[in-house]
TrEMBL record:
GO terms for molecular function: ATP binding; dynein heavy chain binding. It comes from the Eukaryota. One of its GO terms (cellular component) is meiotic spindle pole body. It comes from Talaromyces marneffei PM1. It is found in: Cytoplasm, Cytoskeleton. Its main location: cytoplasm. The keyword Transit peptide does not apply. One of its GO terms (biological process) is microtubule-based movement. The lineage of its organism: Eukaryota, Fungi, Dikarya, Ascomycota, Pezizomycotina. This is Cytoplasmic dynein 1 light intermediate chain 2. Residues 427-438, 447-456 have a biased composition (Basic and acidic residues).
Amino acid sequence: MVGIGSRMSTGTQDSGGPGSRPSSKDGNKKNIWSSMLDSVASGKRLPEKNMIVLGGTPDSQREFLDTLSSDPSDPRLPNERRKGKVAPIANEFALGYTYQDVLDADHEDILARVSIYLLSDPSPSFAPLLRPLLTPQSVPETLIVILLDWSSPWTWVRQLREWIRLLRSVMISLEDSTKIVMEEVMTEWKDKKRGLDPNSATGVTNSGGPVSIPLGPGEWDEGLGVPLCVVCQGANKIEQLEKENGWREEEFDFILQFMRTILLKHGASLIYTTPFLANSLQSLIHSTLGIHSLLRRQSLKHNVIDRDKVLVPANWDSWGKIRIIREGFDIEGVGDAWSIEIQESSRPLVNGARQGEDAEARDAPTYPIAEDGSSAVAIYEQTIKDPKQDSAAPGSSVNSNRNKIEIETEDMQKFLGQQLTILDQLKAEDEKDREAKKAPKPLEMSPHLDESGHVNEHIGPVQSTWAVFKSMLTTC
């Protein structure tokens, strides 16, 4: 022990002797190690992405996140590996939150971490919760997703209107620095549509310069400053609408044309999803956020043929492609009506209230605004009607039953009660007829007598003497 201690002390003394390295070199060595560690740490830092999910219920939001986290490309992998690490989801009250780690194709490396914020109610009271999520640093890495459901497609346009109005109000109230970044983001997306994407091999002239393709009519007229994706969940209910409510291809084509027309103005993408079935939702979301696998290139191909697997990526659609679905759709009228409708109630929000709105008006109860026939919501709901309200309208039961393929059976006791009432009425009518037959009837074949009491008409071949005499007088 003493030897060890002496060697330690000797080593300590020798470290400060003339043969030791200068202290300045030790400091440089430490700085080199620090810089190397910092570079490695920054190199392994995960890219951070943000996704704001609007609409739906807590259950449908969880279903969306479950579909997004699953990887149907390799069914051989266990379910827990295909989903990755599942983070807790808090979405029961106000603004919810969770996150997802995006795994590479080999499910070993993490490509990015997506912070997910969830909001179910488009009330202006929740606007202050959304404003801090949009900053100059976060806007280029943010995607907004609006959830709709096939359980009530007649409310889609109304829901979209409320969410777009809320988003416009929030974005108008942002700082100028954030608005400048939003303009840059929208310009970048528009350039991709024009063919000016530097990563694209297309869109170059013979001289090597990029080709600037002008935007078509109705494209990017109402950009929000952040990419938008609309997800229509529960596409398996399409068959149910067809069987139970008598919907035909005309209704489904009208919905698709209407949705594509209004989303084209925002440069948004559209996708129909079905629970537990493979779809392109993950590829669409990740490509929009700029998350790309290093091992496998994800393919994102449009689909407007299969009515339950529709996929319309951003910058793909146009008025010409929408028109060919079905003739007679007023695409110009729908586009103009939508641009006017989303302008309403778009004043900046300050602490959840609109500028220029007093406390009394803010606290007063709100009532739905009646839409005239030119409103985009009215145009949509005149064709896509709620089957329950439509069947309750007077005079519509006959038409609704005529269009139905299947009719719900009536309750047995209720049916028998109605039949008993009908049988009682028939029984009463039969008794009246029976009583009428029992009553004596006046003799219909009694001879007609004249004033003198003689028969003025003969009965059979026998004539009275007076009749013969009278006929003789007339002949003479």
